[in-house]
Amino acid sequence: MTHQYPALTAEQKKELSDIALRIVAPGKGILAADESVGHMAKRLNQIGVENTEENRRLYRQILFSADSRVKKCIGGVIFFHETMYQKADDGTPFVQMIKDKGIVVGIKVDKGVVPLAGTDGETTTQGLDGLSERCAQYKKDGADFAKWRCVLKISDNTPSALAIMENANVLARYASICQQNGIVPIVEPEILPDGDHDLKRCQYVTEKVSSGAGSSAGTVLCRAGGLHAARSSQVLAAVYKALSDHHVYLEGTLLKPNMVTPGHSCPTKYSPEEIAMATVTALRRTVPPAVPGVTFLSGGQSEEEASINLNAINTCPLVRPWALTFSYGRALQASALGAWRGQRDNATAATEEFVKRAEVNGLAALGKYEGSGDDSGAAGQSLYVANHAY
Amino acid sequence: MSPPVPALSPEQKQELATIAQRIIAPGKGILAADESTGAIAKRLSSVGAENTEENRRWYRQLLFTADSRVDACIGGVILFHETLYQKADDGRPFPQVIRGKGALVGIKVDKGVVPLAGTNGETTTQGLDGLMERCAQYKKDGADFAKWRCVLKISEHTPTRLAVMENANVLARYASICQQNGIVPIVEPEILPDGDHDLKHCQYVTEKVGDVPVVSPCPHHVPVVSPPMSPCPQVLAAVYKALSDHHVYLEGTLLKPNMVTPGHACTKKYSPEEIAMATVTALRRTVPPAVPGITFLSGGQSEEEASLNLNAINRCPLARPWALTFSYGRALQASALRAWAGKKDNTKAAQEEYVKRALANSLACQGKYTPSGPAGAAASESLFVSNHAY
């Protein structure tokens, strides 16, 4: 059916598409620095730092002061609202610092999850009220992309059809509104892979994850991993149906999904290649090629795991028509946070830790990272937090 | 399939069902006095009154303190936020005044329509953010039911599937959240019957509405209702599907639809019996019997038309398992407003006009209304306002 009332003009589409391509340019990914005030409390608490506005400012300054080495590996930075309007010690607005490095500024716009009555602890996400006006203002204030997180849980009776449908719909509404305001929406349907059920399901079952490339042996994943893959496909199918129904311009969007991994209680270790194969297969079945980039969230993976897995994804032998890169929060910041510990004297060393992870992930996004061979230190530590809330 | 975790306990269900039953008790309907500040501005200016907070307070007080003849006619009063926190001259908060007369207090909770990109001027409605908390507060402050208005337009290419689906979904989310807070949601999918197209459509004067039965007592043949009405069943079907998906307890809801009428530009006149037959037929096909009551909006009908049509609906020979009553704004207030004209001295005369319409509609919702004597000056005047926004 021809579309008689185009949602976007040709110029608007071009602007959105250009922004998206800049963010996921080869070798580049996203620094997710959009932790809410409550979420920052946990991070700072872990290093014994008080959660004040000043400390949050100082901490983000560490990240944003990174030198020109980050220009080649960071395409975008996601801000929290407070941070958009903060400045460096010398008075330079953070937004300007980022833009001066040729990096695109993004803004988290959702207002958190709310319960879906009649479900087993499932949620939708709120934040649509006045979103058009907020986007218009953020655009004026320097943002060119946005982020909105929905959460789905895997258990015996979830995600339910209601949760899938409602979250897909709200993501599509958000995306539509962003695009009307020249803002590229990152669509984030996170599928939480945690919970007791994982342990029960971690049985050795050989499940073929059939590859589109034909021959080769299937991937061995435990039942939890297989379930994660299947649910991811269901969720992504619903998301792209909703985006289509809401007239969202796919070339002007990005997707921020999980990698397909077994549950955290699963004792079996899977190779990066197995994780990559399961992930890419699920994406190939559901994400239209028009989507310019898939920017993975790191979930509870350690810094090193997140880089190794991303690298494997980029060397996976299946045809991959979208950029496959990172949108990492914890997996880019853990070492930096640990090095800083709230001391100004440690700022430079902390920034250096961040730059190291940024460069590593830039290589991983090109399939050129060979691994540090070193799992000690913060890089190898699991960053898993039960029932994680941003 | 019953939800894995019940959305409501038996006690919560009982409370909601009881509230709904009280609002639509035999002979009773709703006074919709929830005009927003902008909407009431038009009303006040049409009678030469200034739109001040005091005038708004005085005008509502006039309605809420009408004498005891209205007590048997009014089961509920819908308020705008400002009005919920205003007081009568004697210092009693309006909710207390209203409840003192045996009626329940309702509150408009939506935040107005917003555009759906890629459509021909179609909209959805916003207001879900923080709705849970707002409902909890309104319940504490005396409200037992709420109202949320969605709007769908009839034209050659609308309503689209997107508009129908999105509006049904947002109504279901609103309803679910209300019920979690002991508030009965009135679900209002208004179908705007205006526009040029009506004239073209009104040429289909002999079009059957599906397979409407010809019932022998009815003197008219098949009701001649034009295609603008056909989206109505689609909309209601989508609404009840969404309510089901979202685990909404139907016995604790009310529906506020249009009557099925031709567009206002349509030159042909239809009898109240024809309108009643078309309306009840559409409702029988889509509204489950579990819904305790249907409280019609008056749209642009004159006071007298709205009463006559409601009366015909209640005399329609088809089986009607729900109460069929009124939720009138303009059709209860027009004469009163005109009589008041912003002057305190006219209060008694204005109240008399309101009481007259309340009594008329109380009879109409029992199928016992017979107009006698000349109607009030304003009673027969059409209250149609193009592209009406509350």
TrEMBL record, chain A:
Enzyme class: lyase
Keywords on record: Glycolysis, Lyase, Schiff base
UniProt organism field: Eudyptes filholi
PROSITE patterns membership: ALDOLASE_CLASS_I
Pfam families, A to Z: Glycolytic
Similarity field: Belongs to the class I fructose-bisphosphate aldolase family.
Pathway assigned to this chain's UniProt record: Carbohydrate degradation; glycolysis; D-glyceraldehyde 3-phosphate and glycerone phosphate from D-glucose: step 4/4
Superkingdom of the source species: Eukaryota
The protein's name: Fructose-bisphosphate aldolase
Catalytic activity of the protein: beta-D-fructose 1,6-bisphosphate = D-glyceraldehyde 3-phosphate + dihydroxyacetone phosphate
EC numbers on record: 4.1.2.13
An example Gene Ontology molecular-function term: fructose-bisphosphate aldolase activity
Gene Ontology process terms (BP): glycolytic process
InterPro entries attached to this UniProt entry: Aldolase_I_AS, Aldolase_TIM, FBA_I
PANTHER family, sorted: FRUCTOSE-BISPHOSPHATE ALDOLASE
Automatic annotation (TrEMBL), chain B:
Biological process, per Gene Ontology: glycolytic process
Gene3D superfamilies: Aldolase class I
GO MF term (any one): fructose-bisphosphate aldolase activity
Annotated keywords: Glycolysis, Lyase, Schiff base
UniProt pathway annotation: Carbohydrate degradation; glycolysis; D-glyceraldehyde 3-phosphate and glycerone phosphate from D-glucose: step 4/4
Catalytic reaction list: beta-D-fructose 1,6-bisphosphate = D-glyceraldehyde 3-phosphate + dihydroxyacetone phosphate
Pfam families reported in the protein's UniProt record: Glycolytic
EC number of this enzyme: 4.1.2.13
Family per similarity comment: Belongs to the class I fructose-bisphosphate aldolase family.
UniProt xrefs under NCBIfam families: FrucBisAld_I
Protein name: Fructose-bisphosphate aldolase
Provenance organism: Eudyptes sclateri (Erect-crested penguin)
Organism ancestry: Eukaryota, Metazoa, Chordata, Craniata, Vertebrata
Gene: Aldoa
